[in-house]
Amino acid sequence: MNIYFSGIGGVGLGPLAEIARDAGHGVFGSDTTESLTTDELLRQNIPFSTDQSGDFLTRCHEQKKIDWFVYTAALADDHPELIMARKLGIPMSKRDELLTQIIKEKNLKLIAVAGTHGKTSTTALMVWVLNQLGVPISYSAGSTISFGPSGFFDPASSYFVYECDEYDRNFLHFRPFLTLLTSVDFDHPDTYPTQRDYVDAFSTFLAQSNQAIMWRRDTVINIVPTKRSWILDDREIIPFQVAGEHNRANSTLVAKACEFLGLGDAEQVKSAIESFPGASRRFEKLADNLYSDYGHHPVEVAATLQLARELNDHVVLVYQPHQNTRQHQVRSGYTTCMQLAETIFWLPTYQSRENMLLPILTPEQLTGRLVNRGAVHYASLDETLWGHIQQARQLNKLVLCMGAGTIDHWVREMLASSP
């Protein structure tokens, strides 16, 4: 079967494209821009184009006959490739339908990693640990990872480890054998109008899971655990030799999952966890005193700053808020989440999938209630900001660049062009 992925550079479709290729399907795809994910796909000789006019899709269909058109939830109904796929009569769906078919066809047990924060790191850690234990697995992680492709299918595997995202209610299409629930706050207001909607979706997801491992703190916000839920208290966090309280908590979930699955002994699992090389853009070290992180929610910012302070007493935060619609929901959470930063460079909000009826919140509006507002400097992605970053690094301060928009790509480009 030949499958075309529209939005193949995204964190959902990129890994799925690799899995489909490994499972024996022909794979083609497009996206608006190149990215770390598309670079990875091109290295694997997967045909890719930034031409989304419909012409590239037509050429692929004429050459190979596309059997299935899979598209990202971010695509508008009038997107040229969607229109062309309909015109060509190609069956189409979002990613969940294809993935559930692969899991069913290959008779795999789904290990789902869900939650508002920590999904990618925990998914990558679970993959790493099972690899170290010699367990054949297939998986899909929501980022490029240092020790392998972001998506992989192993014909010998019995398990499929999946970063099960709540955006667009994607996770409700799955019935996992085992779910690891990292944390629940509130996010994606464009999918869930209220926090109640968001929490109810997680309760539904847990009800669809054969077994779940989660934290008791998440039951306080009325997440409804099932009788098959293994509920952990904060005092049960295992003191692994890894930086960051949230990373030690997520490592504990992985260790408990291995215990539930009967894979490895405690010492083997501990050794594997403590040797984990990390995932891309999850407190990823780019150079001396320079780190990149995908986090863009106040809870994630606070957790990552706590991790950074374990390494350096002087932390400079460069922050790019993500999506104006989301800022209207999370702005109150900024009050104390950045208090561990010595200096903050605040960038304009990266806009994506916006509700055009909402006014654009300015950096001044978003930072007005910060307890350490005096540490804030308003900035842009330019040479002036790069000069401040370089100066901080030279003073042996840790510079943390956070956001899900253009900031990571900009930092890597500036670093590559620096003498």
Automatic annotation (TrEMBL):
<dbReference type="Pfam" id="PF01225">
    <property type="entry name" value="Mur_ligase"/>
</dbReference>
<dbReference type="InterPro" id="IPR013221">
    <property type="entry name" value="Mur_ligase_cen"/>
</dbReference>
<feature type="domain" description="Mur ligase central">
    <location>
        <begin position="113"/>
        <end position="223"/>
    </location>
</feature>
<feature type="domain" description="Mur ligase N-terminal catalytic">
    <location>
        <begin position="3"/>
        <end position="106"/>
    </location>
</feature>
<protein>
    <submittedName>
        <fullName>UDP-N-acetylmuramate--L-alanine ligase</fullName>
        <ecNumber>6.3.2.8</ecNumber>
    </submittedName>
</protein>
<dbReference type="GO" id="GO:0008763">
    <property type="term" value="F:UDP-N-acetylmuramate-L-alanine ligase activity"/>
</dbReference>
<keyword id="KW-0436">Ligase</keyword>
<dbReference type="Pfam" id="PF08245">
    <property type="entry name" value="Mur_ligase_M"/>
</dbReference>
<dbReference type="InterPro" id="IPR050061">
    <property type="entry name" value="MurCDEF_pg_biosynth"/>
</dbReference>
<dbReference type="InterPro" id="IPR036615">
    <property type="entry name" value="Mur_ligase_C_dom_sf"/>
</dbReference>
<dbReference type="InterPro" id="IPR000713">
    <property type="entry name" value="Mur_ligase_N"/>
</dbReference>
<dbReference type="GO" id="GO:0005524">
    <property type="term" value="F:ATP binding"/>
</dbReference>
<dbReference type="InterPro" id="IPR036565">
    <property type="entry name" value="Mur-like_cat_sf"/>
</dbReference>
